[in-house]
Design brief:
elongated, 4-stranded antiparallel β-sheet
Length: about 70
Amino acid sequence: RRKDPTQNMNRFYRMVIQRDLFGGADLIREWGRIGMSGKVRIDHHPDEGRAVDALIELMDLYISEFNPEFI
């Protein structure tokens, strides 16, 4: 969650890993403005370990490129 009233910024970003019925796992990403319907993207992975690896890779990208103040 990121808020900055001076820049009219009210954003959220959420990532969840959920097992599916076939032994795989989905990485579910949701983002948007707080209080509004966000966008959702679901990426299927063959197992939970690969979904976790994808989540870690995305978190590293998000932290290093989009939010340098969090490093």
